[in-house]
Write a structure and sequence with these properties.
The protein has a six-stranded mixed sheet, with no helix packed on it. Strands 16-13-17-21-20-18 form a six-stranded mixed sheet, with helices on both faces. Strands 19, 22, 24, 25, 26 and 28 form a six-stranded mixed sheet that branches. The chain folds into four domains: about 160 residues, 3-Layer(aba) Sandwich (Molybdenum Cofactor Biosythetic Enzyme, Chain A), CATH 3.40.980.10; about 45 residues, Molybdopterin biosynthesis moea protein, domain 2, CATH 3.90.105; about 90 residues, Molybdopterin biosynthesis moeA protein, domain 3 (Beta Complex), CATH 2.170.190; about 70 residues, Beta Barrel (Beta-clip). Strand 24 and strand 25 form a beta hairpin. It contains seven helices and 28 strands. It has about 400 residues and is α+β, with helices and mostly antiparallel strands. Helix 1 packs across helix 6, helix 3 runs parallel beside helix 6 and helix 4 packs across helix 5. The chain is elongated, with a radius of gyration of 31 Å. About 20% of the residues lie in helices and about 30% in strands.
Length: about 400
């Protein structure tokens, strides 16, 4: 057996970043920038008010409370040619440009509006020059480095890019990943089960995991135990896709068409990894006509093993192909209030757990229950994997490293 670190290193050394494409910013979500982004504009482009209130001259309100004549109003998206003179004020809304002559803004809560033949405002507090103002370039200065190459475009990043008029962006393109399951026992059409048959679940789960990773998932179907049909599906998938994720047929000692076909048409490494679940794992490169070789991830058929194997090996490799700098799920150290039991077997166990923050603010994990590699129902409730080194497990109240699958 080899360690999961060695298995992952083998995969990462053979998967490479994809080519760049230019897309509208709105289509770049989850993708990674190829070049640094330099701001071409100031944000904001003019001095504006940070609050709703009155634009005034600071020197006029040093003896507050004072009465000022209201000589105009300016809203966001508008402007005024009227300057603020001595003893005057202009009503101003958040985001509106500061009128000439004013040097500060008093928020409306510190004022009292007096309506009459001539509108006045009573200012109840004095404020220094610059109060409640946003200066030119206060958020972003023209010429500043906004984002280095390798930045993932998230919603806030997209918003910033549009704020400086970046409309298109060079990014590493989104991988197209084909997913297939193999086996005569799998039923995927809702028909009644014959003796020995089971419902397909891995392909459905893996398609969702691929999409969650940020890739375009392609359903390559359920392939029967027929070498010819499987070879056609794999070769066809390799021409359409940047990578293939296959579930089933990688266990040592089992005769399976997956091993027979992939061993013949691809450069494969069939591994036994010192982990539980997901001990069997295969990875290789399938030659194709259209371009360079297509990575193939051979995951175990047991559904929990398939999920864990994807998280440990396929997901980091796909993220590397996308240009991400962080490949693994977030890691943390948690408390196991009830402990996490296991037996010595020479493997690292990835226990499926529920993680949540306790009243003391510390991350806590508890087992989801059944830990069998076929028991997907229990695993479906897990939002983290607890990493248990070989030994007797974690005592009650002990610390354990965890891989966070989600935490919301």
């Amino acid at each position: 057996m080899i360690s999961h670190v060695e298995a992952l290193q083998h995969v990462l050394e053979r998967t490479h970043r994809l080519d760049a494409v230019t897309v509208p910013v709105e289509q770049a979500m989850g993708l990674v920038t190829v070049h640094s982004v330099i701001a071409a504009e100031d944000v904001p482009p003019f001095v504006n008010s940070a609050v709703d209130g009155y634009a005034v001259r600071s020197g006029d309100i040093t003896a507050a409370p004072v009465h000022l004549q209201v000589v105009g109003e300016v809203a966001a998206g508008a402007s005024t040619d009227r300057a603020v003179g001595a003893g005057e004020a202009i009503r101003i809304m958040t985001g509106a440009p500061l009128p000439l002559g004013a040097d500060c803004v008093v928020m409306v809560e510190e004022t009292e509006r007096v309506l009459g033949e001539v509108e006045h405002v009573v200012v109840h507090t004095s404020v220094p020059v610059g109060t409640a103002l946003r200066g030119v370039g206060d958020d972003i200065a023209e010429g500043a480095l906004l984002y280095p190459a390798g930045t993932e475009v998230r919603p806030a990043v997209a918003g910033v890019l549009k704020s400086v008029n970046v409309r298109e962006l060079a990014v590493t393109r989104r991988p197209v990943v084909g997913v297939l399951s193999t086996g005569d026992e799998l039923v995927d059409d809702g028909s009644p089960l014959a003796p020995g048959q089971i419902r397909e679940s891995n392909k459905t789960m893996l398609l969702a995991l691929v999409a969650e990773t940020g890739c375009t998932a392609v359903d390559l179907g359920v392939i029967r135990d027929d070498e010819g049909a499987l070879e056609v599906a794999l070769r066809h998938g390799a021409e359409r896709c940047d990578a293939i994720v296959s579930s089933g047929g990688v266990s040592m000692g089992d005769y399976d068409v997956v091993k027979a076909v992939l061993s013949r048409i691809a450069e494969m490494r069939w591994m036994q990894v010192a982990i539980k679940p997901a001990k069997p794992f295969a990875f290789g490169l399938l030659s194709r006509i259209s371009s360079g070789p297509c990575p193939v991830f051979g995951l175990p058929g047991n559904p929990v093993s398939s999920l864990v194997s994807f998280e440990l090996f396929a997901r980091p490799a796909l993220r590397q192909m996308m240009g991400h700098q962080t490949l693994q799920r977030p890691a943390a150290v948690a408390i196991a209030p009830d402990g996490l039991a296991r037996r010595t077997d020479g493997k690292v166990h990835f226990a499926r757990v529920q993680a949540a923050f306790g009243l003391d603010g510390r991350l806590q994990v508890r087992t989801v229950g059944a830990q069998g590699s076929h028991q997907l129902a229990a695993t479906s409730l897990a939002n983290a994997l607890a990493v248990l080194p070989d030994g007797d497990g974690i005592p009650a109240g002990g610390q354990v490293p965890v891989m966070l699958l989600s935490l919301g």
